[in-house]
# Entry
Amino acid sequence: MQIVSALKEVLKEGPVPLYYQLEQHLRERIVGGEFEPGASLPTEDAICSQYGVSRITVRRALSALQDDRLIERRRGVGSFVADIKGGMNNQLTGSLREFLAAAAALDTKPLSIQREPAPADVAKSLRVPAGEDVFRLKLVGSLEGQGPVAFLNIWVPLAVGTGFATSLRSEVPIVRQVEQALEAKLTRAEQFIEPDVAGAEAARHLGIAADRPILRVKRIYYAQPDTPIEVAYVRYHPERYRYAIDFKG
# Structure
């Protein structure tokens, strides 16, 4: 009770919005190690009670922490501290339409599609129980005149239907076809770029050595209401792919 009373004294009415004060205090508790990576935060009701604020204030604070990737919010489950690795993180925003237009430039060739248990990381990203069955697609993406550029592993929910596998179109990004199969509207995507090695399977399709350093991209696509509908891991050919950003003042 003393802890709850103390927390209620943290936030003060004034020119600084309560949701911003709450966000900063929760941020300090997370960064300070009070909550370990993967640990669940108190429920919205509990935070309301602890700090003496409304549910709207709590949700705005949690949304800000989610935008900064300090926490992950899982519908119907709760909020969890993200597993933040050491290093430098830069967060950029852009147009989903332009992003998908660039993806459509790849000529993709399906290699296989099968039903299998979701790996732990994929299950977490799709917000399904670990080991739950999903569809996994393997594809090679090429550019005219350059040959294979990307090796893709894509996981989608079973809800896309078994007919999805026989109706794939190489000229349309997979996520657009998932969107149509689920009758859901794509709203946003997250992309994470990390260094990796090609690995035996990607190396075979890209024509490079298995231990060759490459860029590995993870993408998570979301539809309304903020529901993940596809997780993709893409390994790019190191001599045929370049990631460029144009910063404007």
In short: The chain is about 30% helix and 30% strand.
